Amino acid sequence: MSNLPDPIRVVQLPDGTYTYADHLPTPIQPAAVPQVVHQAPPDRTLQRIALGSGIGAGTVAAGVYFGPLLVGALTAIAANLALLAFLAAVLAWGVVSVVKSVGGTDGKAAAKTLARTRKRRR
Q1: Which of 96, 98, 89, 93 is nearest to 111 (CA)?
Q2: Listed residue (93, 80, 8, 83) closest to 50, CA to CA
Q3: d(CA 51, CA 60)
Q4: Of residues 101 and 41, which shows the higher confidence score?
Q5: Mean pLDDT over residues 96-111, rounded?
Q6: Which residues are CB-neighbours of 92 under 8 A, at least 6 positions away?
Q7: Residue 3 has pLDDT above 60, yes or no
Q8: End-to-end Cα spacing for the chain
């Protein structure tokens, strides 16, 4: 017994266009059988696209589930890196300010050397 869904048939209409067989109107049933009017036929568009391109339904489900998780994780990583870069800039500014104010002439020379080194790296 196969677990595969029923194959979807394509038929040609009298006007020459093609359509899927599950979109065709159902034949009128005898009046003794009540019809359910409020239900629409199932939409198989995503299934047709995914399975028609050669990937399985599990791959589609994984993409739907893990896609937003990946975006969230990358956003969190980017926010952490931005915070670390800001923290490093504030600490460097603090070190230069302290060295300038405390060190006298040697401190000012060291601060100039540090500032030149930072400019060269850019």
Answers
A1: 96
A2: 8
A3: 9
A4: 101
A5: 77
A6: 118
A7: yes
A8: 67
CA–CA separation, 111 and 117 (whole Å): 10
Which of 78, 76, 79, 118 is closest to 96 using CA atoms? 118
How far, in Å, CA of 83 to CA of 93, rounded?
A: 15
- The residue whose two tokens read 């990937």 is 55
Three state DSSP letters for the chain: CCCCCCCCCEEECCCCCEEEHHHCCCCCCCCCCCCCCCCCCCCCHHHHHHHHCCCCHHHHHHHHHHHHHHHHHHHHHHHHHHHHHHHHHHHHHHHHHHHHHHCHHHHHHHHHHHHHHHHHHC
Using CA atoms, how far apart are residues 3 and 9, in angstroms rounded to an integer?
18
Following CA atoms 39, 41, 46, 47 in sequence, which dihedral angle do they give, to the nearest 10 degrees? 120
Residue located via tokens 């006298």: 104
Residues 6+ apart with CB under 8 A from 38: none
